[in-house]
């Protein structure tokens, strides 16, 4: 457990929290030299920065790498726009991406969760080790996105490689080294597919999100094809591995406190608050960048104009100044009036309702079927990323044959 902040160091990625503690206490405005950026770690500083889009701009990208989206040949997506354009697009998207549309997925999600639990049970019956992340947590958001976006069952096999490619790019921050292995080709194929879907839905609308996006209108303005493609990109890149890892992190955290796991299994009403606690303690998105539009002075240190600033959400969400002396401890009943698991301000996660629905259904069904479910951390494999925290593989324990 190193207390030195190095986002590329495997030791840091395995356990970043000692380094975050040191930053919060000793260096709340930290200068990183290679690549050059600043890092904020205290809750109040990041909360204020996320709510000041005029000073902390998203328009230059969300990582410390240059031209991360230009590398893919894409137009700026909604998460990389500032007001007022961001405000207009978000309003338009929100008219289609409604809580009611998301809630309508619940029964389908439960059926799919049941099917994945049965798969893990069959593996256990055959003497194999089920993988909580690969077999259960990760497929759930892929299924949900395919349902929302109207990808027919016959095309689902094509959808999986696109999700995998975008997840790889997201984990590495769209850096050039992530462009290997056909990732760019996969993204281009996905965009070609959805370009055809958009054209088809404009001509003959269906009951899916893409159709709703083509029809969304506010004050006479509609979304362009590029706007819709960009939103599909954001949903897949930002909503797939994050939700899957929220589910996996939750099971891992509960396996460290069996009394709270037992309480949660016995009382479903505690699940929504528990999910916020999982997100606070082990946020899948550990850090995102902004760019300063003017000089900013914090804690006696000046950050010049035009500098990349990493918002260390993973550090802020364990800040004792906000969450008290038990900030590092799991408490599924903790009162959490505010946290940064979904960011804050104008870029508060537009898919938060979808993420919470999927994670709630997953935890409810999994704990109902296997209340002693746990994970084998010694044989687990983490993803290597300076921006996200999650799993490539997470062997399950406590899954018994049906």
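^ structure tokens above, recovered residues below v
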């Amino acid at each position: 457990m190193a207390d030195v902040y190095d986002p590329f160091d495997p030791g840091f990625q395995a356990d970043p929290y000692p380094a975050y503690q040191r930053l919060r206490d000793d260096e709340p405005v930290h200068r990183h030299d290679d690549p050059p950026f600043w890092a904020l770690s205290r809750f109040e500083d990041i909360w204020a920065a996320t709510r000041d889009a005029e000073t902390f701009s998203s328009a230059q990208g969300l990582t410390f790498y240059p031209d991360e989206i230009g590398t893919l040949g894409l137009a700026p997506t909604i998460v990389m726009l500032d007001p007022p354009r961001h405000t207009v697009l978000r309003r338009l998207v929100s008219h289609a991406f409604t809580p009611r549309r998301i809630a309508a997925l619940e029964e389908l999600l439960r059926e799919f969760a049941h099917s994945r639990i049965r798969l893990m049970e069959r593996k256990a019956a055959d003497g194999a080790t089920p993988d909580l992340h690969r077999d259960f947590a990760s497929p759930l958001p892929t299924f949900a996105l395919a349902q929302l976006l109207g990808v027919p069952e016959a095309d689902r096999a094509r959808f999986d490689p696109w999700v995998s490619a975008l997840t790889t790019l997201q984990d590495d921050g769209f850096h050039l080294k992530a462009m290997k292995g056909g990732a760019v080709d996969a993204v281009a194929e996905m965009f070609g597919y959805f370009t055809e879907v958009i054209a088809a839905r404009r001509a003959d609308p269906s009951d899916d999100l893409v159709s709703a996006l083509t029809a969304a209108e506010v004050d006479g303005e509609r979304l362009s094809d590029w706007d819709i493609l960009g939103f599909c990109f954001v949903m897949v890149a930002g909503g797939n591995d994050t939700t899957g890892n929220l589910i996996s992190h939750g099971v891992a955290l509960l396996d460290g406190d069996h009394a709270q796991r037992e309480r949660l299994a016995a009382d479903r009403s505690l699940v929504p608050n528990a999910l916020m606690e999982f997100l606070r303690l082990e946020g899948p998105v550990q850090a995102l960048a902004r760019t300063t539009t003017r000089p900013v002075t914090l804690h006696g240190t000046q950050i010049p104009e035009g500098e990349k600033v990493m918002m260390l959400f993973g550090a802020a969400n364990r800040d004792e100044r906000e969450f008290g002396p038990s900030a590092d401890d799991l408490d599924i009943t903790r009162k959490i009036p505010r946290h940064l698991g979904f960011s804050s301000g104008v870029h508060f996660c537009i898919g938060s309702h979808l993420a919470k629905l999927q994670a709630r259904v997953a935890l409810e069904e999994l704990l109902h079927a296997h209340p002693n479910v746990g994970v084998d951390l010694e044989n687990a494999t983490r993803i290597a990323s300076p921006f996200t925290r999650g799993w490539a593989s997470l062997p399950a324990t406590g899954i018994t044959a049906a």
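The longest strand covers residues 288-292.
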